[in-house]
Amino acid sequence: MLFLVVLVSLATGEGRNEARNDVTALTQPWTYTREVESRPVSCPSVLQISQAQVHATPNFSALQGQSSLSQAEQEVAGNVTGDSTRLGNLIAAWIFASTPQYQNYNLSRHSLYEIEQCPGAMCFGKYLQSRAGPLLSTETLQVVNTMELIKDMENEIYSSKVLKAVVAEAGLALASAMRLYPWFSHTHTQAHIPERGSRHCTVHFRVGDLISYGRMWGLEPKIIAPASVAAAVASFSPHPTSIEILGGGMDHDSTPAEQVKSLAVLESLEREIEAKIPGAAVFTDFNGSADEDWYKMASSPMLVFAVGSFAETAAVAGQNNSVRSPACKNMMYANETNKDEETEIRPGWTTYAYEMQEWR
Fold first, then answer.
1. What confidence tens digit (pLDDT) does each residue in 324-353 have?
2. What is the pLDDT of residue 48?
3. Element (H or E) spanning 89, and its range?
4. Which residues contact 27 (CB under 8 A, 6 or more apart)?
5. Dihedral angle at the C-alpha atoms of 150, 155, 156, 158, nearest 10 degrees?
6. Apex CA 333: angle with CA 112 and CA 150, to 5°?
7. 136 compared with 282, residue with greater pLDDT
8. Which of 83-92, 209-218, 248-257 is least confident?
């Protein structure tokens, strides 16, 4: 009960409403123009990608004609929950599923395609399951087929080398699927959408059961230091004027003790950001569905995250937004030995150096 009280207090604390009123309101929710890094760039929402642009790309012909709904989808269209299951992992598999020449992929063995998505309802995960992903180009396949990778589809997108190789083609296909999916607007209630402007930043710090996974692999119980993530938020120029911290999987297969620790980490992150960007409106939203949080990240002008395929695939879908992710060789789990040089994933998406701290 105490945990729930603290959680509600953090999400609706005094002063947050006043801060939100200072953020530039949007005339059309979830449509932005980007004005960061001292170079104004027009950044249409992924929902505004033209049909001609999609069809003009030969590698994505598999997406043509798939905007119509199946009978099963029509039957649940009135109950859109947005409760996709393991959406990041599903998308990571979806990216490679339609390219038979990809040597490491075996769809019949991939457990994610056996998981029932949002039973009796509609969500983005269910929509993707029944539709083909991108057809990766010969050039991209030549790169990824020669890499030594974990031969488990849901893990491979975590590799920074694989990510660099597929981000352009996968980004267009995923953004196209977002545009064709008709229900993202239904997953957002006005109560969950404070005003966001062209200098809004969304932050996803993976917590919850992340440490439990690390222990299974024999890793030390450590996380990326909140100060490192806050420094990444402050690296945008000009600074964001509003910063929204999502739940980060706080209740994803986690114990009550892990949830309490997770909340403490996110509170620490909030304080670090407030200290580094004093004039910004910093607030939290832990109430979003999986689809809602993923879409927030994919359509945010600025995005900062700390490991995990959920935020990583949203960054891929964003295509043109500004992104900061940790400089690690594999984005499943950060540690000292996983550190890598800072690099550019795609224009606008760069990695940041980080320090580790104890999970306490």
1. 999 999 888 788 888 999 999 999 999 999
2. 31
3. helix 87-97
4. none
5. -120
6. 55
7. 282
8. 209-218
d(CA 16, CA 80): 29
Buried b (16+ CB within 10 A) or exposed e, 169-198: bbbbbbbbbbbbbebbeebbeeeeebebbb
The secondary structure of 9-59, three-state, reads HHHCCCCHHHHHCCCCCCCCCCCCCECCCCCCECCCCHHHCCHHHHHCCHH
The full set of domain ranges for the chain reads: 2-41+192-358, 46-187
- pTM of the predicted protein model: 0.78
Residue 105: the pLDDT is 53
DSSP state of 119: T
Q: What is the DSSP letter of 103?
A: T
Q: H/E element holding 302? A: strand 302-306
CA count, 13 A, side-chain hemisphere, 340? 19
In 140-247, the DSSP E strands lie at 200-205, 222-224, 242-246
**What is the reported pLDDT for 174?**
94
Reported as a single tens digit per residue, the pLDDT across 261-301 is 888 999 999 999 999 999 999 999 888 889 999 999 999 99
User: Which of 127, 113, 88, 144 lies closest to 313, judged by CA?
Assistant: 88
Evaluate whether 106 touches 96 at the Cβ level (below 8 Å). no
Give the SS3 label for residue 229: helix
